[in-house]
Every structure is written in structure tokens, then in C-alpha cells.
Amino acid sequence: MRSEPRSNIEWRSWGAIDPLFGVSSLPGRGRHGERPWTTDEFYAYGALTWSEYVRHWEAYGVNRDCCVEIGCGAGRITKQLASYFQRVHAIDVSRDMIALAREHVGAENVTYCCTDGRSLPLADTTVTAAFSCDVFQHFARSRDSEAYFHELWRVLGQGSSLMIHLSVYAWPDQFPGIYQKVHRVVHFCDHLYAEVRRRLIQVGLGKPFLYGVSYHSRWLFDLLSNLGFRDVEVRFFATSSLGARPSLRSYLFAHKG
Fold it and tell me: Which CATH number does the domain 8-170+208-256 belong to among 3.30.390.50, 3.40.50.150, 3.10.450.50, 3.40.190.10?
């Protein structure tokens, strides 16, 4: 059996120490920041961003019967999914996050489950949509996502769609080898630093942190196409940041063929 993603360490720590900021890490909104999140503001922010997400998903195509949300966190978007879909399966690696989501979302059509960060506790072809936001870019390695993509292919029914927020990149046409070498060095240093911090958390000496990975566009397209997904595309659009300049982010869409 393959081990859990190493990123589970910091996300379970976020769930125990500062779940709202861990999910929505806007400047100054931490528990000890200048303007800590209140629960009302946190879920209102979820409603705002969902209103920006959903029109893109509807333009692509979405079946509103049953949705699985990977990385529900404290339920910021789960609350919106519950009012949009008939049924929602909300999963997360942090029991503390799930407990907070249960407390504040409270929708009867939502089922929560704590997972290992690799598997979906659902039967084959039982959901019609899959959603994830602010999760896939926080794995310890981009390849940690492969297990979830295989699981999504398994649980989604024919014609279902997914919408997943993640960061993508591609090599420039000129001197791609140089960029690849620089990327490897930078990624190795970042990964080593993150591993040190995870080990400190494990021995009770560290605090949770935000670590990010990005996905090479060709690798991502090949992975989904080989699984059988069709109409694979990445769309870029801006989302609100509560007073700050809207941020341009990338979202993966695909249909199960």
C-alpha cells in the first residue's frame, strides 16, 4: 500500500491550529492577524467565489445531481455546493476541518468523510460532478494528484465533468532545457525546505505552512487523456480577493468520455 501524501501533515496541522486561514489564506486574515476571519465573513467569501466559479462550469457543462468535493476544508465552498447539487460528498484529510464544516454547513444532503489524501470512499460511477479548489496546488508533489485522478475516473459516471483549481505551466519555445534545469533546482530546494518543516511539525516543534506545486500542462493533458477523459482544457479567469486586486487563476475542466 502506498503511503499518504506528505502534505497531509501540514493540512492536518492547519485544521487543528487555524482552519479558516489554512483554507483562505488572504493577508492579515490569520487567527493572530490584523483582521482574523469570522465565520460569517469566511462563508460569505465562499459564496462570492462560488458565484464566480459556477458560471464557468455551467458554460462548460455540469450535471447537478451528485458532486464529490476533494478537500472540503471547513466547508467554505461545500455550503454553496449543497444548495446547487442534489447530493454532495465532501472529503478532507483533516478531521478538525470536517468537524468545523459539519458545524457550520449543516446541510442534510452533504455526506462528510475523512480520507487518506489518495482515495475516494465512493462506489464506481456514482457521482456526476467533481470539484476541488485550493487543494491540488498544495500537494507535496504534483504526482501525488495521480491517485485522485484515477479515483475520479472510477467514481464519475459517463458524461460527468470535473472542475479543479490548480496551477499550470509550460516551457517556452526558446531554450526549454535551461528552464527545466532551473525549475528542477528550485523545486528540489523548495521540497527539501518543506520536508524539514513537516518533520518539525511531527515532533511538535513546527507550525503549519503553505507549500505550492504546479503542473506541467503536457503532463496533465496526457494523464487525463490516457485515463479516458475528453474535452480536457484549462481556463484562466480572475476571482475576487476581498479588497485586493482580483487574482488570475487556472482551472482544469474535463468530461468523462
Answer: 3.40.50.150
